[in-house]
Design a protein that fits this description.
Blueprint (H helix, E strand, L loop, with lengths): L4 E5 L1 H7 L3 H16 L3 E9 L7 E10 L4 E10 L10 E8 L6 E6 L1 H19 L6 E5 L3 H14 L3 E5 L3 H15 L4 E2 L3 H5 L4 E4 L20 E4 L16 E4 L2 H4 L8 H5 L10 E2 H5 L13 E4 L4 H18 L3 E4 L2
Parallel strand pairs: 1-6, 7-8, 7-10, 8-9, 10-11, 11-14, 12-13, 12-14
Antiparallel strand pairs: 1-15, 2-3, 3-4, 4-5, 5-6
């Protein structure tokens, strides 16, 4: 058999690539457009829980993006107590394959990719579903993806008021300091959920609850707002969907599968089903369905995280790495 080689990009390689906000948004949008045009295969994520005592699990995401000629599988660990040992809560590997032969193309440290593509999905959802003049953000959660949520939302909307809250004071203070340093604008640290989200134009719920708990009250959501809940365990009231004009997901196939997700109770109880959706974000990006159509719409975008976004951003970074001579060529066979 002839030699087969693949490229390995480690975390240092990804960091050196310094992807710009626009590069990240464009790559993730390309994946969404392909999905909306029916040029992808995305399978619902599956989970591995080695032991409940470890307080964590693995997510396995799988997909195929025809325009990129790549299939991919990402494995990401989600361990909420990792901060106690100085480790990130989410660490990931992305495996890219030639879909025609099954041969490996690349293996990438996908920890930063996961963070960036999650923020891009939040921001792209807001581009299509929030008011164009949205200026006030209320953000719950300070995990690694939270930084990219705020950074990329600010890139699109040039926010004038950013409020943040998280469970641990030291976490939210450090988060705000980083945002102020990177964005060059003040950030308001709030002591509670209500102060953070009440009346905001865009509300993002990226909490790290150990069990479902309705901490985000429906009555706090202003008419005309966009709400983006994507916490692993539900933090919203069951009535949240009642006030929404449009409910959009990234992929219904995985939204109604698996034990986790911010609207899990809504799906399991039958309160949210496919008939009640406005559609998937990819359909809006591809022009098959409208996004926001009026200033007074109150909208919701729920994303579980797409393998297609990982593949699309991974492909863009792999191309940039080849141009810059970064990464290692490893022999597979």
């Amino acid at each position: 058999m002839k030699p087969v080689w693949f490229t390995f990009l480690n975390g240092s390689d990804i960091e050196q690539l310094e992807p710009t906000d626009i590069e990240i948004l464009d790559a993730v949008e390309e994946g969404l457009r392909a999905q909306g045009l029916g040029e992808t295969v995305v399978e619902p994520r599956v989970h591995l829980m080695p032991d409940p005592a470890f307080n964590g699990h693995f997510n396995v995401l799988r997909g195929y993006v025809a325009p990129l000629a790549l299939a991919g599988v990402k494995i990401v660990g989600d361990y909420v107590d990792n901060y106690r040992t100085g480790l990130p809560s989410e660490m990931a590997l992305l495996n890219l394959f030639d879909p025609r032969t099954g041969m490996p193309v690349a293996v990438l440290d996908a920890t930063a990719i996961t963070e960036m593509r999650t923020g891009a999905l939040t921001a792209l959802g807001a581009r299509h579903l929030a008011r164009p003049d949205a200026k006030v953000l209320g953000h719950i959660g300070a995990r690694a993806t939270s930084y990219w949520n705020v950074r990329l939302l600010d890139r699109i909307f040039d926010l004038t008021e950013i409020r943040v809250h998280s469970r641990r004071p030291e976490s939210r203070e450090a988060f705000a300091e980083r945002l102020e340093r990177e964005l060059g604008k003040p950030v308001i640290v709030t002591e509670d959920w209500k102060t953070c989200v009440e009346g905001a134009d865009i509300v993002v719920e990226a909490s790290r609850l150990e069990r479902p708990q309705p901490l985000l009250k429906t009555e706090w959501i202003a008419p005309g707002a966009l709400v983006v809940p994507y916490g692993t365990n539900s933090a919203v009231e069951i009535t949240l969907t009642d006030i929404m004009d449009k409910i959009v997901v990234d992929d219904w196939g995985q939204a109604h599968a698996g034990p986790f997700g911010a609207l899990r109770a809504h799906v399991d109880s039958g309160r949210l089903d496919e008939a009640g959706l406005h559609g998937e974000l990819g359909e809006i990006v591809a022009g098959h369905k409208p996004g926001r159509e009026s200033a007074d719409e109150t909208n919701l975008f729920w994303h579980r995280g797409l393998s297609l976004s990982d593949i699309a951003l991974g492909a863009a970074l792999l191309k940039k790495a080849e141009e810059r001579g970064l990464g290692q060529k490893l022999r597979f066979s």
